[in-house]
Every structure is written in structure tokens, then in C-alpha cells.
Amino acid sequence: MLRIIIAFPKLADAKKLKNVLNRNGYDDILACNSASHVIAAANESDGGIVLCGYRLPDMHYHELYGYLPREFQMLLVASPDKLQECSIGNIMCLAMPIHSHELVSTIQTMFWEMERPKKSPGRPRPKKRSEKEQKLIQNAKSLLMERNHLSESEAHKYIQKLSMDSGNTLVETAEMILALNE
Predict the structure, then answer these.
(1) What's the predicted TM-score (pTM) here?
(2) E strands of the chain, at which residues?
């Protein structure tokens, strides 16, 4: 089962987010206030999401991300100013203040993609996209850009990564992102 590990310098903040997620049906959640605790818990888990702040007492988010098992994704929560300073890569972001529906929707999208069965690698090359398909991809990028404060390039890379990890097309992945955020 996939786990959510919430890590913030103030344990009370982590517990508040844990309560929000508990109320929305997520059960396997650990709240902690240090990166060392996150790493230990992640190494004992089968995978999941680390929801964390920009800086923990013992390391920054990007250092922590480097220590996580590859079965874990990261969701960074920080002020808009801090998010603009970040080199994000494959890390999802939410700007503070957090709205519970955006948090739950982002977690749901991340879990849904992690749990999807992988398709076989021997797929034929995709045909040229129609205008409708291009619009779906653009709408999904726009949603990620607005909600997660990503640049267009970062949003496209995130959709690409989800697509490659699941073995789905960009269009299928964009449809999934939009469907989970209605």
C-alpha cells in the first residue's frame, strides 16, 4: 500500500495536513518533523508521496528528494517566493496558503498515476495529434501551471514523465489530470 509521509519543521503543521487527508479518505499517513525520519519511514515502505516544506531542520527538500527511494514522489509546499527560487525537476509543487481541495486533488492525481498498471513497452509510434488532443494537453498543462505554479516547460515535462512512467500517451495522461480535477 502506498503511504503519505508529511514533513514540516513544526510537527503541528504536519498533523493539520494529516487531518485534512484523513478526512478525505487517506489512512496510511505519517507526520514527522525531520528528513531523517522521512528517509527511515520511506525505506520501510513500498512507495508513496512525501509532502514536505521547503526546509526541514536537518536538510532542504532537494537533498531529501535525492535520498528517497524511487518508488516515492515528492510534493513540495512553500511560499510562492520560495517556489520561484527552486529547481523543481520531477517534484510537484503547491503554493501556500494551501487549499484543502487542491491538496487532495494533487495527492489523488499523484497516487492515481503511481497505481496505474504499466503498459507494455512495444507500442507503435503515435500518429499526429488532432486539434482536440492538442487542446486537452494544453488544458492539462494550464491546470498544472496554475495550481502547482509550474512553468509551461515544467508542466509539459511532468505530463511527459507521468505518461512515460505509466506507458500511456500524453493525451491519455492529460485526460486523467483533467478528469481528476473536475
Answers:
(1) 0.67
(2) 3-7, 29-32, 48-53, 55-56, 59-60, 72-78, 92-95
